Amino acid sequence: MNRQPEPEHRINERIRVPQVRLVGDNVTVGVYPLEEARKIAQQQELDLVEISPNADPPVCKVIDYKKFLYEKKRKEKEMKANAKQSEVKEIRFTPGTDDHDFDFKSKHAEKFLKDGNKVKAYVQFKGRAIMFKDRGELLLLKFAERLTEVGVLEGMPKMEGKRMLVMFAPKGSKKPAAGAKA
């Protein structure tokens, strides 16, 4: 038994409602009885495709179904290609991180945020350094203050095991919109 998978849209004979709202090229938009809508589609040698089944009455379009699916797939692929994958970059400190290291790591975090990535900053406590939780918290809050221009703090520092961590999200895009004048 080799059954075909159920199509994602109802087409032609699979549409089972008394009347439909008809749209499409070379079609007078309006509400038609189902049989009349099918005849209009057949006259143009196209398919009647239910594109909005939850509307009242359901919206059907007169189009070539195979071409419709191809265009839809192509648009989805294009949107997926244009969607930027943001990563989470990690920056590690210790309770005794000195100023030079702090500045160096802050510059890296700024670059990551400007590139549209999230930044996860944490203070790693080893051995007896766990006694200096307040130092770690102060360090992360100082780091948050440094990044206020390019990033948004997503919550106060919190302990997870032997780490105290915070997350930063990039602020809205700094690039002017296409066609807009700065």
Automatic annotation (TrEMBL):
Q: Would you tell me the protein name for this molecule?
A: Translation initiation factor IF-3
Localization, UniProt: Cytoplasm
Q: Which residues form the Translation initiation factor 3 C-terminal domain?
A: 87-171
User: Main subcellular localization, coarse class?
Assistant: cytoplasm
Its taxonomic placement starts with: Bacteria, Pseudomonadati, Bacteroidota, Chitinophagia, Chitinophagales
Q: Name one GO biological process term.
A: ribosome disassembly
Q: Return the InterPro entries for the record.
A: T_IF-3_C_sf, T_IF-3_N_sf, Translation_initiation_fac_3, Translation_initiation_fac_3_C, Translation_initiation_fac_3_N
**Assembly description:** Monomer.
Task: Tell me, in a sentence or two, what this protein's role is.
Answer: IF-3 binds to the 30S ribosomal subunit and shifts the equilibrium between 70S ribosomes and their 50S and 30S subunits in favor of the free subunits, thus enhancing the availability of 30S subunits on which protein synthesis initiation begins.
Q: Which organism is it from?
A: Filimonas zeae
Keyword Protein biosynthesis on entry? yes
Query: What gene is this protein translated from?
Result: infC
Q: Which UniProt keywords apply?
A: Cytoplasm, Initiation factor, Protein biosynthesis
Q: Identify the GO cellular component terms for this protein.
A: cytosol; membrane
The record's family statement is: Belongs to the IF-3 family.
Query: Would the keyword Protein biosynthesis be found if you checked this record's keyword annotation?
Result: yes
Question: Which residue range or ranges hold the Translation initiation factor 3 N-terminal domain?
Answer: 11-79
